[in-house]
Amino acid sequence: MIHELPKLPYATDALKDVISSQTFDFHYGKHHQAYVNNLNNLIVGTPFENATLETIIKESEGGIFNNGAQVWNHTFYFESFSPNPKSVPSGRLLRLIELDYGSLSEFKEKFNKAALTLFGSGWAWLSLNNQGHLEISQESNAGNPLRKGLKPLLTCDVWEHAYYLDYQNRRADYLQKFWEILDWKVVEERLG
Amino acid sequence: MKRIILSLMLIATLGNLFAQSIVLNTKVSEMSFYSLPYAYEALEPTIDKLTVEIHYSKHHKAYFDNFLKASTGTDITSKSLLEVFANMTKYSDAIRNNAGGYYNHVIYWEILKPGNKSNISVELKNAIEKDFGSMDELKKQITDAAMKRFGSGWAWLSINADGKLFISSTPNQDNPLMDLSSQKGFPILGVDVWEHAYYLKYQNRRAEYVNIFWDAINWAVVSEYYSKSRTN
Q1: Is B171's CB within 8 Å of A120's CB?
Q2: Can you give the pLDDT at residue B17?
Q3: Closest Cα of chain A to B185: distance in Å?
Q4: Average pLDDT, chain B
Q5: Could you tell me if A134 and A180 lie in one domain?
Q6: Closest partner CB to A169 (pick from B152, B153, B196)
Q7: Do both A102 and A178 map to the same domain?
Q8: Nearest in space to B81 (alpha carbons), one of B29, B126, B43
Q9: B197 interaction partners in chain A (CB closer than 8 Å)
């Protein structure tokens, strides 16, 4: 199976108040593309040659895992943004957030804390666990909650390449602005 | 004239030993933040002024401040960084990350010092040829270690307990002095491959940064570290 870079659901300058088109040019055009290319090269002649990204994430190790998970993680991240986002969650997702975190603002605070305190490169995640509850987690480098049997709903990339051109060392500022482009409709659809 | 040159060389030598020794051996309660021995623009064009400014005054400073904060009220204040690294497994992630972050960056700034950079000592040159075959092979192996580090971390040239040079790579802010490192030794050269070290100028082109970094290394400083680590 040849993996391909997915098309973005918006123009690369559509979110420029939060993420510049320059960041998109590198983050999507170079990093995301490189993970796709590396993965395609690495899987040739291995048991993962025809595997889905989900299988690769759950079962592979080393370079295939790193590149495969990074392809999936970046697609999941980029697809959660919109120039016209639904700015607050509703329905089942909102009920779960209120049940597990008290309120949307308390949830955002906890999620941002996870994203801010992750040391080095990685991702902050919101997932649904087997008990039907929401769970915030930190994953280093290419880590992905699918590997732990969780259902990912939302992620924030805190590799420095995600924000360094726009925010430099100010990761907290990036995390504040992140919510302005997050489309809660996408997260609701993932929850189902 | 000769005497002046000799004195200058001695001062330069002491200067190099100074920064590293002080940082490693001072009691934590008496530590002060490392003073960058050159201007932010001094590493242009290898590393741009803005990158040096943010890397030193924000990232490096934050590691120092957070290390002191995490040490406050613990037995660490009466120890040296060398002792902390040697007992790293006993301490929290906050200590590990910030103590490492503080010390690693001192090595980084020191080995980039402007000056007569090509002045490698005979003993280091011989050791490199003995342990790696050639300078080109050393460069190839360090570049390889720096490129293969997935995520944030460092590539190192260190000297082990048997006096042999070796190359390794550590994640995040770990270093070969830490007891938890799989390859332990005394680092004499470190390449920072956290994206913050190169992203403003080189973006995704880590290979280009590592290559140019190699040409900017001050071998006189690395030689001093080598000589000192051997006498210790």
Answers
A1: yes
A2: 53
A3: 23
A4: 92
A5: yes
A6: B196
A7: yes
A8: B29
A9: none
User: How many distinct structural domains can be found in chain A?
Assistant: 2
* Residues A185, A150 within the same domain: yes
Q: Which of B93, B150, B172, B192 to mutate to test the interface with A (most CBs of A within 10 A)?
A: B150
The verdict on A129 and A159 lying in the same domain is yes
- Closest approach of chain B CAs to the CA of A76, in angstroms? 19
**Between the CA atoms of B83, B182, B17 and B22, what dihedral angle is there, to the nearest 10 degrees?**
-30
Interface test with A, best of B58, B147, B201, B204 (most A CBs within 10 A): B204
Q: CA–CA separation, A163 vs A145, rounded Å? A: 22
Which of B97, B150, B200 comes nearest A66 by C-beta? B150
- Per-residue pLDDT at A26: 98
Number of H helices and E strands in chain B, helices first, is 10, 3
**pLDDT tens for each residue of B47-77:** 999 999 999 999 999 999 999 999 999 999 9
Residues A67 and A107 in one domain: no
pLDDT of residue B231: 73
Q: How close B116 gets to chain A, by Cα (Å)?
A: 32
Query: How many CB atoms neighbour CB B46 within 10 A?
Result: 17
Q: Where are the domains of chain B?
A: 1-27+43-232
Asked if the structure places residue A11 within a domain, the reply is: no
Answer yes or no: do A73 and A144 share one domain. Answer: no
- CA dist B150 → A60, A65, A73, B171 (Å): 16, 12, 15, 8
Q: Which of B58, B150, B194 sits opposite A160 (nearest CB)?
A: B194
Question: Looking at the domain assignment, is residue A3 inside a domain?
Answer: no
**8 Å CB contact of A168 and B58:** yes
Of all residues in chain B, the one with the smallest CA distance to A33 is B204
Same domain, A177 and A117: yes
- Range(s) of the domain holding residue A33: 21-78
Q: Residue B228's pLDDT is what?
A: 87
Confidence category of residue B1, pLDDT binned at 50, 70, 90:
very low
> Residue A164: its chain B contacts at CB < 8 A?
195-196, 199-200
Reply yes or no on whether the pLDDT at B118 is more than 90: no
Task: Please check the confidence at residue A110 and state whether its pLDDT lies above 90.
Answer: yes
- ipTM higher than the 0.90 cut: yes
Task: Give the pLDDT score at B19.
Answer: 75
A31 and A73 both lie in a single domain: yes
Please say whether the beta carbons of B186 and B158 come within 8 A: yes
Question: Top-level CATH class of B1-27+43-232?
Answer: alpha beta
Q: Which CATH number do you get for residue A159?
A: 3.55.40.20
Read off the pTM. Answer: 0.94
Q: Which of residues 84-113 of A touch B (CB under 8 A)?
A: none
CA distance A3 to A52: 9
Check CB contact under 8 Å for B203 and A141: no
- Helix (H) / strand (E) element for A16: namely none
Which CATH number fits the domain that encloses residue A62?
1.10.287.990
